[in-house]
Amino acid sequence: MDSKALYREIGRFVDQHGLWPSPQNYALIYQLVVDAESPAARAIKSATSDGVRLTQREADEIMETHGLANGGGAAPTDAASAALLSATRQQVEEFAALVEASRAEAKSYGEDLEAGAARLAAAGGGDDDRVATLIGITRAMVERTRAAEQQLSQARSEAENLRTKLAEASAEARSDPLTRLPNRRAFEERFAQLQEQGATVSLAICDIDKFKRINDTYGHGVGDRVLRTVAGLLRECCQGHLVARLGGEEFVVLFEGLAPEPAAAIIDDARAALAAKHFRLRENDAPLGQVTFSAGVASGTHPNGTSALQRADELLYQAKANGRNQVLAEGSC
Asked: Residue 279: beta bridge partners?
């Protein structure tokens, strides 16, 4: 297979399955196209054997299992992150140089004060000579003080700018660029914190029903608008709880202080609100049809060692198998 055919085949798979065209995803599908018997390729075929699409979460898990890459579902922000990191490093260097210059200036200032004091002590003549010497030293002190204040003010401004940029970079690394929700990394970090604290936690995995049909029929632009709508609805209905995008059309809600059943009631309200919406195409006002999601809700702690995400995922797929557009909670099914 020549390079153009290889590129087209990889791109076709990525598009059909609604994956982001990131370098990591291309590397994964490359394994499938070039070596169909490789462990990663067999895992992909197993995940899609029943005709369902490969979700980004499944792709990430395959990459992690087979050591291909560290995930790949986020939008391609590597270049932007590298540029920001480079700029931040440069600012750190400039800030360090400015602090060093201020330190050297302060040292010189102290030495000049000592020298001035010595001249004043050794000054001969009358009081007028002593006053003139004192005035000269005072003027020098004033000038040095002003210069030091300017340098320190600049250093403080640089430090504030650096702090702001680092905060923005940290937030960007934990944010989904399409929906502006927290991403999987942000969810996993908060979930781990709550587990360490022994807090009561439930989590819900929500997956938009037949989302591939929306993308295939109306295009990814419409699909993106649906994703943003669902993200906003979940954020509104689950106020006070962390709503994050796992990848693709999957979202997760982390309910602090709630058991699965009351958490499922909140998710079910969101499900009903979405199902009641009448979506229309922006371009021609034609009806898009009903958009729904299914969800599985599980407790954050499992004595038998089964992960909460795995259990919620099982409940989600059970809800799909039962006909979609429904929420199943652990302990109620």
From this structure: 289
pLDDT greater than 70 at residue 30 = yes
In this structure, what token pair is assigned to residue 314?
């099982």
Asked whether residue 291 carries a pLDDT value surpassing 80, the answer given is yes
Cα–Cα separations (whole angstroms), residue 172 to 76, 165, 244, 247: 12, 10, 13, 16
Catalytic residue among 94, 149, 249, 256: 249
Query: Would you call 93 a catalytic residue per the annotation?
Result: no
Residue 136: phi and psi, rounded to 5, are -65, -45
pLDDT at residue 98 in the model: 64
Which tokens is 257 given? 């202080």
pLDDT band at 300 (very low <50, low <70, confident <90, very high): confident
The CATH number fitting domain 184-329, selected from 3.40.50.300, 3.40.50.620, 3.30.70.270, 3.40.50.720: 3.30.70.270
pTM: 0.57
